[in-house]
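Residues determine shape. Next comes a sample protein:
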Amino acid sequence: MTSSHGPVTGTDPHEQLRRAGLRVTAPRLAVLDVVAERQHAETDEIATAVRERLGSVSTQAVYGVLQALTDAGLLRRVSTGSRSASRYEVHHHDNHHHLLCRMCGRLEDVACVVGEAPCLEPSDDHGFTIEAVDVLFRGVCPSCRERAAAAEHRAGS
């Protein structure tokens, strides 16, 4: 989702917040910094890192900041399903999806298969104007495949 001001493309977090129509606060700056450093971090990981930087900040306050920054189009929430919490990334307003390892939880960006957003078309749009498509490819990463093969080999020996 982009803010009503359009995508925020500047790299200065103070300016990003202002252009998105948000007040510049220490928790918002800390959350932006943490997510920029730890793409695809889970909420609890973000909250812990923000507390390390700022001291006493409640988890609920971090949730509120994440929601405000997502609503403003500065962050993108990636839902990986019921097994794990939502993850966050800096929203570059590009056209990418994600690969998720079902064994270890590794999450990687993957470019859209074809074309511009949305890169998939529904068979029936029910009158909606489609603005975005979120695709999550699930599978097994190379490291987990190697570990599974090694364990299977040891078990067969």
Notes: The CA atoms of residues 98 and 136 lie 5 Å apart. The first strand starts at residue 41 and ends at 42.
